Every structure is written in structure tokens, then in C-alpha cells.
Amino acid sequence: MAKGDALKVHIEALRTAIPELKGVLLASNEGLPIAHSFSNGQDPNRVAAMAAAASSLGRRISESMSAGALGEVSIQSDEGALFVYSAGSKAVLAVISPQGGNAGLIHLEARSIAKDIGDLF
Questions:
Q1: N or C: which end of the chain has fewer CB within 10 A?
Q2: Residue 121 has pLDDT above 90, yes or no
Q3: Is the pLDDT of residue 1 over 70?
Q4: Phi, psi at residue 39, to the nearest 5°?
């Protein structure tokens, strides 16, 4: 299976496991979208840039605290949440959840998918 197809399979597997998600996006660390699936009309370029920025800030904080490699960044808001997971050294996985989404289930599924995607790179 080609790498692009494998990435799409992982993203759709996450959407299938948690159907209430508003979106899932894989982006490069530079903020460029690689693959995505949105149900709310989000602009993938914008989400990719924001996810990469959140990940970059999280990495800098983690390094300055001597806390090791970044695992994830969570942003909670009134309308939902954005979870950004490190997907290897070259990419980030962003998951957009509605308000009241099951964060435990999201972390369980997304951490596994992020690791699998990181292994592809």
C-alpha cells in the first residue's frame, strides 16, 4: 500500500472509531496539510498551521523543562477541543472534538494512530 493511502486509512480509522469528531488532520511540522477529513468545513491549511504552531510551542516548553519528547497538546474551548499529537519527528496529528467529547477515548485511539503514522515516516 502506498504511504498516502496508508495515511488515509489511519485517518478514516480514527473517524470510524469516534464518529462524533469534527475533524482529523495530519500535517507536517512546518504546518502543511498532508491528509485530512473534516465534517465542519474547516480550512485544512489553517488547521495545519495552527496544529504545527501548537506542537512547536509544546516542544519548546517540554525541552525547556527537560521533560523529554513532546507527546501531545490539548486546547479546550467552550465549543470543543483540539488535541495535537506528535506523529514521529516529521508530523503532527490534530483531532477536533465537539464539546463533551470523550477525551479518554480520543486519547486512546489517537495516540495509537499517531504512533502508527510516525512509524510510516
A1: N
A2: no
A3: no
A4: -115, 0
Tell me how far apart the alpha carbons of residues 95 and 111 are, in angstroms, rounded to a whole number: 11
Q: Which amino acid is at 102?
A: N
Q: Tell me the backbone φ, ψ of residue 50, rounded to 5 degrees.
A: -70, -40
DSSP, collapsed to helix, strand or coil, labels residue 81 as strand
Average pLDDT over residues 32-55: 92
Which grid cell is 75?
486546547
How far apart, in whole angstroms, are the C-alpha atoms of residue 4 and residue 120?
10
Q: How many CA atoms are closer than 13 Å to the CA of 111, on its beta-carbon side?
A: 11
Model confidence band, residue 44 (pLDDT cutoffs 50, 70, 90): very high
Question: What whole-number distance in Å separates Cα of residue 114 and Cα of residue 34?
Answer: 13
Q: Domains in the chain, ordered, with CATH?
A: 3-120 (3.30.450.30)
